[in-house]
Structures are given as structure tokens and as C-alpha cells.
Design brief:
alpha+beta; 14% strand; single chain; 10 strands; 45% helix
């Protein structure tokens, strides 16, 4: 029986369809090797993607543990560099809600700290400063964090770039009778803790079991819970730029912890 089709309508930006579909294929390669399952991509057009229609189901404890192990395998599939896109991708990617997409720089940095400082923290800081979201005192705090990152204070040379989903909030994990399925990626090379921190930011079903199973499959570096806020800083800044409100104070207060 042919799979049921979900047609995902896309914004009027031809490169977005190519970006998301490239990410699905790249993550799908890891899924074929035991990584986290990825929604099946059936067809690609400039204004839509045809995807397998998924039937939601509750997230069981066993499914959460299975997802944690599989996500570790996806990350372990690796990437050529921090900030790189899927194989063959040229130009920047995209991140954010479909009606307000923001550019996501695709680059190739030798260290996570230099990548995260320049292509994520400072890139969003410029947007927020220019539109008045972040004031002068806020800018100083974010720049201090960026300097410490660029200096390598949080780098782990023993852990090479991971293959990330890149926007792994709970809404981009679909739970089905067969387990968790990844949707809506912004796939790139990065730090494995970034995906885990994003899962933690807005909560996810069975989060404790996911993290415990992940840590069994690939032990996380000592002190990683203390770095969760650092990895959440970029999405918090993006939310501040997009939506304002309490996200602004939350982003600044998080930055102060690492400044």
C-alpha cells in the first residue's frame, strides 16, 4: 500500500524546499544506519514538500528510550565541519516559522566555539540590535559570551562535529506507534549538546528517559547540564528577535550566566 501523503506548503522561497529536503535526506542516511527515524520524503517542488503522513500516538517510556539511543547514533554519524550544511549544499539555510524565516549561516569552522560565537550568537545579535530588540547593555553581555566561546573555553576536541537536526524542539519530534520520527529539520554540523538543549528548552515527552538512554549510548562530557543554557542561547535570541516579550529578558539573563 502506498503511504498516505501530507503536503507541506512552503513560503515563497524556492531555496527553502531544497534546504529542508536536503536535511531530511542527510538525516535519513543516519536513520538507515540505526539513527533516529525521519519522515519519508516523497516529492519536492518549489512551493511544497510531499511527506509521508504520520499518525500521532502517545510517547511511551520505551519509545523515549529508543529515541535517545537513536538520536545518539544520528549525532555519531558526524559532519565534516561545524556549521556545514548537508552534502552539496551551497549558500545559507533557513530557520524559524514559515511566515518569518530567518537566514541560518552555513559555514565550515574548525571549532565549535568559533562557529557558535560568529555564525550564531553574533549573527542574531546584529539582527536584534538593528531592530532595537537588544539595547547597548545587552549587546555588551552577548559580546562577552561570544569572546569566551571564540577563545575555546567550551570546546571539546575529543568530540568531533555531530550531525544535528538543528531545530529539535519538542514539536519537531512526532511520536507514532512505531516510535519517534524527526520532522522539519535545519540540519547542519554542530555540537551534540545543542540538539539536546533544544529538546529541553520547551520540554519533551519522556525527556529524562531520552537523555538517560542517550547518555548510555554515547556518554556525554562531564558538566554538560551546566552548558544547557549556553546551547539554548541562540534559539532564545532568535525568539527574542521574532517575538520580543519575555524572550528578550530570558535571553539576556541566560547570557549573563556565561559572560
Amino acid at each position: 500500500m502506498a503511504p498516505l501523503v501530507h503536503r507541506k506548503r512552503l513560503p515563497g522561497n524556492p531555496s527553502y524546499a531544497a534546504w529542508e529536503s536536503s536535511g531530511l535526506r542527510w538525516l535519513g542516511e543516519a536513520a538507515d544506519a540505526g539513527g533516529a527515524r525521519v519522515v519519508a520524503l516523497l516529492d519536492v517542488a518549489e512551493d511544497h514538500l510531499d511527506l509521508e503522513r504520520l499518525v500521532p500516538a502517545p510517547a511511551s517510556p520505551a519509545a523515549a528510550e529508543d529515541f535517545g539511543r537513536r538520536l545518539a547514533t544520528t549525532h555519531d554519524a558526524g559532519a565534516p565541519a561545524y556549521g556545514c550544511g548537508p552534502p552539496g549544499w551551497e549558500g545559507d539555510g533557513w530557520l524559524g516559522p514559515s511566515d518569518r524565516l530567518l537566514p541560518l549561516e552555513v559555514t565550515a569552522e574548525p571549532s565549535w566555539g568559533s562557529f557558535y560565537a560568529r555564525a550564531r550568537i553574533l549573527a542574531v545579535l546584529r539582527m536584534g540590535r538593528d531592530q532595537g530588540t537588544f539595547g547597548a547593555s545587552d549587546v555588551v553581555v552577548f559580546e562577552r559570551v561570544a569572546r569566551r566561546l571564540a577563545a575555546g573555553e567550551h570546546d571539546d576536541p575529543a568530540d568531533p562535529p555531530s550531525r544535528l537536526h538543528g531545530d529539535l524542539w519538542a514539536g519537531n519530534v512526532m511520536w507514532t506507534a512505531e516510535g519517534a520520527v524527526l520532522i522539519d529539520p535545519a540540519a547542519h554540523g554542530g555540537h551534540r549538546e545543542t540538539d539536546l538543549a533544544m529538546l529541553s528548552l520547551f520540554g519533551a515527552p519522556g525527556l529524562e528517559r531520552i537523555l538517560a538512554a542517550y547518555d548510555e549510548a554515547h556518554p556525554l562530557a562531564p558538566g554538560w547540564p551546566d552548558r544547557v543554557g549556553l546551547h539554548q542561547l541562540h534559539p532564545l535570541m532568535l525568539h527574542a528577535v521574532l517575538f520580543g516579550g519575555s524572550y528578550v529578558a530570558q535571553a539576556v539573563e541566560t547570557a549573563r550566566r556565561y559572560a
